[in-house]
Structures are given as structure tokens and as C-alpha cells.
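Entry 14. Structure prediction run on the chain below.
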Amino acid sequence: MDIKVFDNLEIGNTNQGEINIKLSVLPINKFIIGVLTTITFICFVFPISLFFFDKLEIGFPIIISFVIFWGTAVYFFKILIWNKFGKEVYSITKDRISFFYDYGFFRSNPTSVKYNKIKFCYQNKEVIKEVVERSDDFPTLKSNIFFILDEDNIISSQLQTKVFNILRIKDIYNRDVRVIESESTEK
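Output returned:
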């Protein structure tokens, strides 16, 4: 597999009519990681510490409090590991796009969507535009990746990358996936 890395984007080419894209979370401030870790720890430990009180009666309100605190701990833990290890993984073939979110310790369920036509787009000032040609602002402009399938279905990345990288994805798709498709129709 041929792998190219650009900033927070990794593009893998299987040379069998498929490209794999990994979009990684950019590093965040260590202070924010510390705050998320502290909140997660407090929300997990606080209900356990209540067991050390002698006059604690376990009842419905205590159980609800435990559920709320541990639910909050799970939520903040998920945010913490996403901001530390998170990746969006896409696999694109000539007629299908599959994707999932990788949190480092677990993954979301994969989603797969069939299509006949795909456009690679970016967002600039609230307008979604197709990446069609190189522009001087591409190397600095950042956007989510928008995959527009059959003109009516939009899949959007949660993470941003440089628009120039979206153009690279489109070029690799046109060069490798569509070439494989045309070779198979000629046979």
C-alpha cells in the first residue's frame, strides 16, 4: 500500500480501486487535556467516595446521582480520548464510501454508503464549493471535507484539513480509483 502523509491527513492507496483516508485530531493544549482528565476523574471517583459516609442510605436518589456522575465521566472520557487519539477513517471505492471514528481505545460502527457520482468539496464562508482547480489560498485555507454523493447526500468530516489536501484526495481518487474502474470496463 502506498501511503502519503500531509499535515493531519494520511492517504493510503491500495492500487486495487480503493483509497483509504485517515484524518487525525490536531494536538490540543495540555491545559485542556488536564481539565478534561480532572473532570473525568472527579465524576468517576465522587460517587465512590460517598460509600465512606456511615449514614448513607442507598436509595433511588443516590442511584440516580451515581448514574448521572458516571454518565458524565464516560462522556468526558470520550471527549478526552477523542482529543488525544481521535481519527476519522474513510475508505472510498468507485461506488461506495465507508467511514468510522477511531477513538484509540474503541471505534464507532462503520457506515457505508453507495453512490454513482462523488464530489470532493470544502467550505469557505458558509458556502460549500467543489474542489476543481488549484488556488493560491488552498495551502492555508482549512475546511471540513465534504463528500457529496449523487448531488443529494452529504458526508462531512468532523475534523478539518487544508483545502489543498482535499484536492490531493480528489486527484488520487481520479488517478487511481477511476483508472481502475475504466480498466475493468474495457476488458
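Residues 30-84 form one domain.
Filed with the rest of this week's runs.
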